[in-house]
Amino acid sequence: MKQALRYAATAALLTMAAAGAAHAQGDYPNKPIRFIVPFPPGGGTDIVSRLVVNRMTETLGWRIVIDNRGGAGGSVGMEAAANSAPDGYTLVMGQTSNLAVNPSLYAKLPYQPLRDFSPVSLVSMIPITFMVSAKSPYKTVGDLVNAAKAKPGQVTFATTGNGTIGHLTGELLQRRAGVKLNHVPYKGSLQAFPDLLGGRIDLFLASLETAIPQVKAGTIRVLAVTSLQRAPVMPDVPTVAESGYPGFDANTWTGVLVAAKTPQPIIERLNAEITKVLDAPDIRARLATGGAPVKTGPQAFIALLKADSEKWGKIVKEAGLKVE
Predict the structure, then answer these.
(1) Residue 178 region, left (φ>0) first, then alpha (ψ -120 to 50), else beta?
(2) What is the distance between the alpha carbons of residues 160 and 73, in angstroms, rounded to a whole number?
(3) What is the pLDDT of residues 60-82, one digit of tens each?
(4) Is 125:304 a contact under the CB 8 Å cutoff?
(5) Cα–Cα distances in angstroms (integers) from residue 195 to residues 158, 189, 190, in the given order
(6) Residue 282 forms beta bridges with which residues?
(7) How far is CA 298 from CA 47, 86, 256, 304, in A?
(8) Segments in the chain forming alpha helices (H)
(9) Residues 147, 150, 154: CA angle, nearest 5 degrees
């Protein structure tokens, strides 16, 4: 009889716990959400993140606080997100570098993308731009390559950090063009632009989102974009493929994730709300910088992550890159 009572009590507690969890999910969100951006302010990932967060705040009334956690090619912020409670109150904007590149680049990565995160939705697919100062003598990719051939190791290219897609794009260009460039990693675009504009570095490889404000200000020239098609926002700028390197393709993407084991109803709610934001005509136009719409389902996110992990992992191995 006592055993039966214990079983009944245990069942009642489990039922209450399940009901409480369901109620909590039904009320989600009932407190502020932290949105980790694993890069400093001002870069492409930060720009895209704020675009999405601002619209969600406006339309839903949710309290979402952006937390910029730069460092180690995005690994610092991703680790913080991986170690957060799986309750949907910490989101992170992952991207190609910290999800598809870092596992091959870092000897001891403090997180594993497919183990420690649950993908919610892809957000953007954006090409890398070949940026030079408006005062630069280089007018085309060909000009840059010819200079690199004449001065091996002396032409510099800046990126927002070791292992970023900008960095690997530079490695890919060196292999395709048969040249040697000098890589100069920065902590973020805000640190790189003064040196680019001041003529202390020759080339900056970063996302098109990063380039747009500088192009509008007339401070830089974009030699090429790395998508297979020209970017709608810069229709006169050729692709790298058109510049003599057929098939050259090096887009960077962003996507929202939560900690693994976050309840599925919360993931579905977040996916639905982010999809609504991305379907808004003005947001869709703003993010169509690369002309590549994204599929927002979690499974599409996982498939892209696996494919790009293989692609960029090969470049990391060929280039002999490693970060301790």
Answers:
(1) left
(2) 8
(3) 999 999 999 988 878 899 999 99
(4) no
(5) 9, 10, 10
(6) none
(7) 22, 16, 10, 10
(8) 2-26, 44-60, 75-82, 96, 102-105, 113-116, 141-150, 165-177, 189-197, 208-217, 264-279, 281-287, 298-319
(9) 70
Q: Is 176 exposed, middle or buried (0-12, 13-18, 19+ CB in 10 A)?
A: middle
Angle at 289 between CA 286 and CA 292, to 5 degrees: 110
What is the pLDDT confidence band of residue 288, given thresholds at 50, 70 and 90?
Answer: confident
Residues 6 or more apart whose Cβ sits within 8 Å of residue 25: 263, 265, 266, 269
For residue 182, the number of C-alpha atoms closer than 13 Å in the C-beta half-sphere is 11
Residue 254 has pLDDT above 80, yes or no: yes
Is residue 220 classed as helix, strand or coil in its secondary structure? strand
Cβ of 235: how many Cβ atoms within 10 Å?
Answer: 8
DSSP string spanning 120-142? EEEEEEEEEEEEEETT-S--SHH
Question: What is the distance between the alpha carbons of residues 55 and 144, in angstroms, rounded to a whole number?
Answer: 40
- In angstroms and rounded to an integer, the radius of gyration of the C-alpha atoms of the chain is 22
For the entire predicted model, the pTM comes to 0.78
Type of residue numbered 324: E
Closest CA to 297 of 263, 274, 266: 274
Phi and psi, residue 261, nearest 5°:
75, 10
Residues 6+ apart with CB under 8 A from 310: none
What angle in degrees, to the nearest 10, is found between the helix axes of 208-217 and 44-60?
90
